[in-house]
Amino acid sequence: MSKCFKRPLQLWKTLIGQSFSQAIAYRAQSMVWMIGGVMPIAMMLVWLSLAGGEAIGGYMPDDFAVYFLSIYLIRQLTSIWVMQRLDRDIRRGELSMLLLRPVSPLYCYIADHMGQMMVRGPIILVVFISGIVLSGNLQRLDVWNFLVFLPSLMFAWIIIFHLYYCLGLLAFWVNNAMAFDPLLWALYTVLGGALIPLDLFPPGIAAFLKVLPFASALDAPVQIILGKLGPGELLIGFLIQIFWVIVLMLIRVLLWSIGLRKYTASGA
């Protein structure tokens, strides 16, 4: 039994170690990415100005501060660039080298993100906690909410990873899968709640948006940090996240299976 666990652990250790070393070597690039992700901080200042000390749609100024700082945290912790990797590897034929390895290319792409996050994660957490402290909302960070937040963050990462992965797989059929990147980014930003909290939309629209994968990847974990969800709402949120995890995994397997047959048939 120990051998069954030892080999996968050694595999992940090697893959993540390679990604971690690369992230350390190019740490300046990671810093640029993090600086480029401060849009939620700017939106926080906008909404605090609009609120002017009053409530908007049930959100007090402190709620806006915690909400957009949480948006920053989650967007940074779920940063995904697998579409770019897939588009490049498939179009240039570099996927062939990955297919020769004894592990699935999927594991290599996942490990690539995990290694990078080991470098970026601590800095992101420092920025988030500093923002919470400076805005006077440290008392809003609840231990129970944090424990519930962790599995929600994991599901959010899987969802956004698969959204980008599935679009990246379109490189099997189109010349530039990256053309879909701005569209996905816009949908994720607007419909996920990065610009406007989904609760501020009309009730019917908000209810619809909350069942989309974009909300599951962003708004759902944010609401847990805010502490605005009751037990029933938490359960529904997790069920929606699990639903999208399963659906997107099935789509990924289907696209990979069909696309790989086309790829090998082309002689790559």
Main attributes of the structure:
mainly alpha, 13 helices, 75% helix, single chain, 268 residues, 0% strand
What's a quick, concise take on this entry?
This protein is mainly alpha-helical.
Which structural class is indicated by helix and strand composition? mainly alpha
Beta content comes to under 5%
Shape: elongated
Report on the biggest sheet.
none
Number of strands: 0
Q: What is the subunit organization of this protein?
A: single chain
The number of distinct helices, counting runs of at least 4 residues, comes to 13
Spatial separation of the terminal alpha carbons = 38 Å
The radius of gyration computed from the alpha-carbon positions, rounded to a whole number of angstroms, is 20 Å
Low-confidence stretches: none
Helix content: over 70%
Mean pLDDT: 83
Helix-strand sequence? HHHHHHHHHHHHH
